Every structure is written in C-alpha cells, then in structure tokens.
C-alpha cells in the first residue's frame, strides 16, 4: 500500500526508510494533487513554523484538511502532532496555521529547546497488544511538544514523566505543572506522537499505523450499498501486514 509522507521539511526520509523496512512504500507528498494517489499520510517532525509556511505557499492546507475529514488515516509526529491539533499554545508571535481534526490542546515546545531534547522509556500497552514486542518503547524527544488536554473521543496511548533535569516550558508561567505529559494519542483515523519513532530501529508504530489503514479500507468496503435486486461481486485485496520481531 502507498503511504504518503509530507516532504516539505523535516524527517520525511527517515519515515520512508522505516516504512521500507516493514515492506511498505512511502511516497513523498509536496503538492495537493499527489494526495489522491495515497491511502494514508504521515506528517513528519521538523520545524513546525517553517513547514506551515511551505504548506501555505504550496496551497496544501485545504487538501490536507479534506484528507483528514474524509477519514483517511493520518499520523503526525512531533511537528505533525502540532499540525493536527485543534488548539495550540506556546506558538511564535503571529502563530501558525493548523490542519486540525484532533480534539486536543498541544503546547508547541513543551519540553524546552533543542539542548533539552531527551530519550525516555514509554509504556505502550496498546502497541504491545497489536504489535507484540517489549512492554516499553524507547522514545526520542527533540524540541518536543506535549498534549495538555484531550477531548472525550481521544484515546491516550502513552504519557511521560518530566525528566528531573529538564526545564519544562509551559504557558502560562504560573500554571500548575502536571506530573505526566500526554505524548501519544489516537482519535479514530488520526494518530499523533510527540516523539520520533522514525529515528529508532523499533518499527512497531509504523506497523500499527499500517493496520489503521487496513481497518479504514475494510470499513469502506463493508459500507458499499448494493441497490435492491442488484448483484455485485468483488474480491477483497489481500494485505500482508508486517509482524514485529
């Protein structure tokens, strides 16, 4: 199956390489019309303000919003999470345009600057159930955002405690800082992670995302309406899903 990877800026090559390791084909997306040729989309990590300006320059926002509204699977990592959020704080002066669709509030640079990047072991029970492997995932956080609050339809997949040696940046400054920050969620067709799975050898998140695509395809096939008295025959395409080892 062809998975689109938004290739304006950031770690799109790393996502394509990760997809290749599990037998999937990643396609670079830079123009709105290219979205018609993919079944799902990954919005990679990078510099969210720069990515937003490039997306606006290429008139991509209307097509990206329509892609999400159509129910096609979309996964945002780091900057991609910011793009998909309905609400964002901690932005630069003037803010940035968002795609939206994910009912959450995200803080843009929640964990601080580049030098405050870190790695952490996350408990990922949903990923383990679907993909197997060890009970935790070694996550890489680079100028990472975090989700401050989620809507009722959003499933929390992972959270992280604040590293004791990190200077957590949150607005407003006098706000009470929670003990844990939400860093991975799913809402129907949308998956979002504050960290960078594409920078690790563990491909379970990419495999999990492919299964989301297969689920949406199956739902679309089962919703075909056949007129009364009519007949329709079709063969469901076989999808070989990767297995985590």
Average pLDDT confidence is 84
What is the tally of beta strands? 12
Please work out how many helical segments DSSP would assign: 6
* Overall radius of gyration: 18 Å
Describe the sheet with the most strands.
7 strands, mixed
Within CATH, the superfamily carries the name Class I glutamine amidotransferase (GATase) domain
Provide structural commentary.
By secondary structure, the chain is an alpha/beta fold. It has a single domain, classed as Class I glutamine amidotransferase (GATase) domain (Rossmann fold, 3-Layer(aba) Sandwich). About 25% of the residues lie in helices and about 25% in strands. It contains six helices and twelve strands. The strands form three sheets. A seven-stranded mixed beta sheet has the order 2-1-3-4-12-11-10. Strands 5-6-9 form a three-stranded mixed beta sheet. Helix 1 links the parallel strand 1 and strand 2. Helix 5 crosses helix 6. The longest helix has 19 residues. The chain is globular. The C terminus is likely disordered.
Features:
245 residues, alpha/beta, Rossmann fold, glutamine amidotransferase, seven-stranded mixed β-sheet
Brief digest:
With 245 residues, the protein is of the alpha/beta class. It is built from six helices and twelve strands.
